[in-house]
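Reading is simple: each integer encodes one residue's backbone shape. The lines below illustrate:
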Amino acid sequence: MVGRVAGGGEGSRADVGLVEGALVVTEGAVDALVVAVRHQVDDVHRREELARMRLGHAHVVGVKARALDDWIRTDFKGMNTQLEELYFADRPRTEKYGAAIKQRLVEDGRLLIADLLKEGNTDEGFDSGFEPLGDVGFYMAACRRHDITEPSRETRSPLQEASALAMQLGASLGVIPRFASCHLETHNRAVNGRYKTFTSLDDEKVFIDYNTRGVFAFIRASEALRNCLPLGVSHPITYDLLSAAKIALEDVYNSNQQLFERLDIDRFFYCVRPYYRPHRVGLHEYRGANAGDFAGINVIDLLLGLCRADDPYYSQLLVDKFLFMRPEDQLILRDCMRRKSLLDSFLEVPKKQRNSDWFQRNLQMFVAVCDTHGKVAQQHHHQLVEKFIQRPAHDGDHSQQTDLTASGPPLEVLLRSLKKLCDMRSACGDANGIETRYADIQQLREYL
């Protein structure tokens, strides 16, 4: 599983505002009035143009929602790509490039979102609302990436229509009012063979392709472990399920390895990662999307017993990510938080049964699954985090940048937190005061 850290922050925080007086992204009634007056006539013509371009056919989510979705897949992606090529030639500065492109991106998106908000016809089932939430979330994330918005200089998001629609959809769906990683991975609907991306850059596609493969492999492993629960650790089919979980985790490892070999470090750091930064929706600032925002990886942690829901650090991690997951994932994770782990179930097996064939066979496979999960955690931390985040941040003198990470805290704080999680998943024996299941895993090894 990859992509656990994302974020960015390029150059100074000049108040971009989209030069030429076309759009002032500051707060206050006067500014809002100026924007409204200046765009009143242009809005009519631009809406007509966008309608001709986008509204050729209807979809179950509604004509206006489809118009926004089509724009995200085409013009929006094209404008982001143009801007990334401009930025990449003068890393990491963004504020002095592409003012006209930024203006068009903001205005085209605003008009489409305003039409959808005015229509109000977004309550046609969960999926029909979840996809538009992703679309408006992509738009807001792109505005943050291009420094059109910046949380530290705002008290509320200047993207008023987008904020209103995102909050309406998020509240009705029971999720965070911004795009989440599943909008790019597990629930990113392809049209004519192409799924949604921010740009047309090859490295973004590589990143999403292999992340998605990793996520689904984690989900396969988690489902296999969940199916062990009603059977118990002595059931003969539990061995098959544990074997399936191990194979799935090996798939994660192999997918990650291919990603690390194919992904360009600078393209990822400067052109992919910045779309995952925190930004405001309405009054509140929300952390960026995280590739770990799905239940599967935590289900594995909990059911293997390597992490515990009553651990203060780990429980905080779970609380922070709940609303970034789809409701069905939230239910799965809540259920697993109250279950006895497989590790504890093996530890409770009476001494007289420990030499039985079922115990030796199933325990051996269980320990192998734990080892594989730990190997993936080590791979993620030492190859993705260190190679693609820590090293370029240091080389580019970005380590002290306050908005570098998707999660919000400074890089060094986040790195310590990620190391703690890696040690827990690896059942590390020298974790510097962090409580892990190292002793319990060693006890089980002695039974073999």
About this structure: The domain at 29-184 is CATH 1.20.58.600 (Methane Monooxygenase Hydroxylase; Chain G, domain 1).
